[in-house]
Design a protein that fits this description.
With 431 residues, the protein is α/β, with parallel strands linked by helices. It contains 17 helices and twelve strands. It binds D-xylose and nickel (II) ion (2 copies). The site of one nickel (II) ion (NI) has 5 residues, from loops.
Amino acid sequence: MTDFFKDISPLAYAPDSTDLAFRHYNPDEVIAGKRMEDHLRFGVAYWHSFAWPGGDPFGAETFERPWFGDTMDLARMKADVAFEMFDLLNVPFFCWHDADIRPEGDSFAESQRNFEEIIDYFGTKMESSRTKLLWGTANLFSHRRFMSGAATNPDPEIFAWSAATVKNCMDATHKLNGENYVLWGGREGYETLLNTDLKRERQQAGRFLQMAVEYKHKIGFKGAILVEPKPQEPSKHQYDFDVATVYGFLKEFGLEGEVQMNIEQGHAILAGHSFEHELALASSLGIFGSIDMNRNDYQSGWDTDQFPNNVPEVALAYYEVIKAGGFTKGGTNFDSKLRRQSLDPVDLIAAHAGAMDVCARGFKAAAAMLEDGTLEEMRTARYAGWDSAGGKALLDSDLATIAAQVAAGSINPQPRSGRQEILENIVNRFV
Ligand code: XLS
Ligand code: NI
Ligand code: NI
């Protein structure tokens, strides 16, 4: 045991508590035939909670954690603290990048040794912990070698280094029985087209993703391969812009049956969409996988990765998740970080507990809206014309036949209300 969380006890479900507790998240409560924990599948992101030092473009580290530093002993201490937090919160999952969990070595081989040692350390800790791996991923964007991209780098040696890194991260994810493997292309994009061969870079990225899928099958990894779209930051333009763009990319490289989406709230906002738009689109394309839950500041224009704190927004997101059939291998990963002034261990616990409560409230509201059924009934009624014989025949017809019908006067459309305010009032009854 470390003493990092020394004054904090495991959090319980205590709806009336004014102390550190869950007021809405009750893992065992059954909603729509399933325990809340099994619906929501919460995960903690190692990078924000244990690796991020609290810097911003104008200031460096604020957090000064006792495990910061580049030794294996400190990496093990970091793991000890992480698993202590997983226990306090009773979270079923966590997620990591290789660079979050191990010190960088002087060579690829040394980094790999460090990484494998920590993966084994995780393996031992997971034997006595209930927290499992939601997904692993490779950090192919922080080190300076990746400044011009990973798979899309103009230098083939960086492609090779990245491929070797992804192989090792997939092996480790497989070893720890991870449920998914994620690829987020942070620097798979460009700063200026003046020095960029866009066509070539997209081909490289497509082949790289094919290689990851081939390797998954080779090692018998049963988890899902997930791509996480984001339009920009750190690159000025990123190729995996949003769900629609990634779907086109998957089609181009024959991967649409192999790869699903990890959709992040803040990235949807940066792309000019709502979170629920991205979720609904992925679901309609059959590529919905998992979510990175956070909240983006609507004024700042960058990825602020705040913990979610907006129940109506979260409710509309989970409404789409439930309609998509809920999570199978995916889950709710808190890709959320503290504000840099939130220095204390209690801030870390309260942030997650609050976010879990917000998600629980949102999820319950979404499930209740679906159960009530009015929203779906009104939506179905809006499209009823398409279920009529005439409506069905239309899509099998052709322009000339349709034109003849319209000219004959048998078609005379009457505008009808879209009822947006009434629908919003209905949502407001549940949130
Ligand atoms: C950054 C991304 C990143 C991925 C994992 O914006 O959200 O944290 O989730 O590489
Ligand atoms: Ni993000
Ligand atoms: Ni993310």
